[in-house]
Amino acid sequence: MRFLTAGESHGPVLVAIVEGLPSGLPLTPEDINPWLKKRQEGYGRGRRMVIEADEVEFLSGVRAGRTTGAPLTLAIRNRDYRNWVEIMDPAPGNEPRKRALTAARPGHADLAGGIKYGHKDLRDVLERASARETATRVAVGAVALKLLSFFGVEGVGYVAGMAGVWSRVPFSWELKDRLEASPVRMLDPEAEAEVIRRVDQAKAEGDTLGGVIEARFRGLVAGLGSHVHWDRKLDGRLAQMALSIPAVKGVEIGEAFQNAMKRGSEVHDPIYWEEGRGFYRRTNRAGGLEGGMTNGEELVIRAALKPIATLMKPLPTVDVVTHEAKDAALERSDTTAVPAASVILMALSAIVLAQAYLEKFGGDTLEELVERVERYKERVRAW
Ligand code: EPS
Known about the structure:
Shape: globular
CATH superfamily: Chorismate synthase AroC
Bound molecules: ligand EPS
Radius of gyration: 22 Å
InterPro entries: Chorismate_synth (IPR000453), Chorismate_synth_AroC_sf (IPR035904), Chorismate_synthase_CS (IPR020541)
CATH class: Alpha Beta
Largest sheet: 5 strands, antiparallel
Mean pLDDT: 96
Keywords: Amino-acid biosynthesis, Aromatic amino acid biosynthesis, FAD, Flavoprotein, FMN, Lyase, NADP
Protein name: Chorismate synthase
Number of strands: 17
Subunit structure: Homotetramer.
Structural class: alpha+beta
Number of domains: 1
Strand content: 15-25%
Number of helices: 12
EC number: 4.2.3.5
Low-confidence stretches: none
């Protein structure tokens, strides 16, 4: 399964084409829209999220509520486009450019993208660099998640810490629903209250905030990914996907950074075996991955997000046209998008996992795939 996305933040539409899905997968917009909504939520988002109410349209690949096996085209319209028609007009003659942006924002793609593609109007960079693109990828992730549900796999994304405050309530699946009620997708109500206070404060001061997000999956079979070649290692593939989320600058599988400072005897998870259950662990410091493969335990992936690069109290920069010292451009922005990013991390990880299932089990129809996964699970239980 492969996919491409296209679309600008203030263009008419965002699209994704997904190729390689099996036929027969039940799929309606209701499988996708709740994830799009979760991606838009979270305390600290800006006014843009009030304008948008993301909803997916199927332009190809689904008939009568099921995938046909043909490429699936997903489209999400930008409601804000009506305010940007002239600015985003593809026709020649849009000069001088309306709302041209020349004061590159430190931390954003503006400067490097402008140099690389030869744009002095940095809007030509930022419209595509915008995290709005993740709407389409979350839609693809929701499709992946639907596919994974037929293999008994479940995923969740939440905030481990943000605005300098860590959640002290460890994750458990029983508490999962509480996340939906938390405006910062945190399980710890005390931490949540403090985060909200700090987001308000940062907003009032024209500043922005980052955080650490976590995604987990349970029900995965052992043996997804491979040890035999570098580009088939699942941890590497998950890390690449995580680092492709705007503002993500660090990735961790399991307790990687804590583990690095301990002895091997304190880190590696001893192996046990039980009749009817097969191999299992009592600890999961490895985060469900060993040798580039799932080991049958829960997959745990964490990512670090830097604070958003558009500050309402701008940082010093240089105008790319005049080369004069200036304040960075003031483009409408969020104070923080960490809760949304936790949904994105889960959805994008689901894409990598769905790809790994399709590679291992093949099959053109959902039925074939499910049969093969079930047979493998039985074999592994007895192995
Ligand atoms: C973004 C800036 C803001 C965010 C946007 C990402 O958009 P705007 O410039 O229109 O106010 O709201 O995120 C989204 C639109 C989204 O859907 O996530 C940026 O510069 O990256």
